[in-house]
Every structure is written in C-alpha cells, then in structure tokens.
Amino acid sequence: MTERVDFYVLSSAAPKQRWTFACRLAEKAYLRDMRVVILAESAADAHSLDDLLWTFDERSFVPHALCRDDGAADSSVAVHLTKDAARAPPADLLVNLSERMPADPQRFARIAEIVDADADRRRLGRERFKSYRDLKITLETHQQHDAGEA
After folding, report:
1. How many angstroms separate the first and last alpha carbons of the chain?
2. Which of 31, 85, 102, 108 is deepest in the core (most CB within 10 A)?
3. Taking the domain 4-144, which CATH number applies?
4. pLDDT digits (tens, 9 = 90+) for 125-137
5. E strand segments, 40-99
6. Helix 15-31 crosses helix 43-55 at what angle (to 10 degrees)?
7. Residue 30 C-beta-side C-alpha neighbours within 13 Å
C-alpha cells in the first residue's frame, strides 16, 4: 500500500539534473537500508542511469543492478533500474523518471516523482498528480531550487 507520493519539482529543465537528483534520492534511501526501484522511460535511459549511479558523486557508492527483461532481479542488490515497474522486485521506494504512471503503484510504500521545468514533463507530472489524488494517496510537493540536494 502506497503511503505517499512525493513530487520533487526542479527549477531546471536539464535532463541530467533530474537524473542526478534521482541518484541522490536513491543514495539517501540506500543509506537508510531501503530497497529502491528507479523507473526509467526506456532501456537506453536505464543503461545511462546505470552509468550515472557509478559516477554522479566521487564520494558515493550505490550498489545497483539493471532488471533483466525476463524479470529476474538480484535480491542482494538494494537499488534496481528498470523500464517496467511490473517486472521490478518489491521496494520501499519507487523513483519515477518515466513519463507514465507506474504499473500498480500500490506495490511501493513510497513513490518519488521528479518533475523538471520542461513544459511537457510538467504537464505529464500534473496528470500523474491528479491520478494519484484520484487513488486517494497522500501527496507532498517539494520545490527544489538546487537540484543537487535531495
């Protein structure tokens, strides 16, 4: 059952800022012993995020893995990257970097939606906000003026 959805609204429209913010959220959750799934828009995005998780901060280490197409996931890894939330393992936090609602959002205790200043992503973020509200999930909005802080 989803306890709440946090919308992080970034002031920048740069996709890398959104992805870096997602890496920081994943790191913060990992350090709190939470299991995390990062939902990417595409397989190519998931691979790019895989690389970024190794390099976004030289002082950080976030063990992670890509979910395979067959749905198999390494249960010893705390952070998983996928383009299909339905194939992801159970998690405490879903970080949604896709433009769509996750399949069966109730599978995740918390969801983080990261919305940047791009007009289309803002519009799609508002649509997801309304959908979560219709599901009667608690919503929180956080204005982020510095995308580096999660």
Report:
1. 24
2. 108
3. 3.40.50.10110
4. 999 999 999 999 9
5. 64-66, 79-82, 91-96
6. 60
7. 20
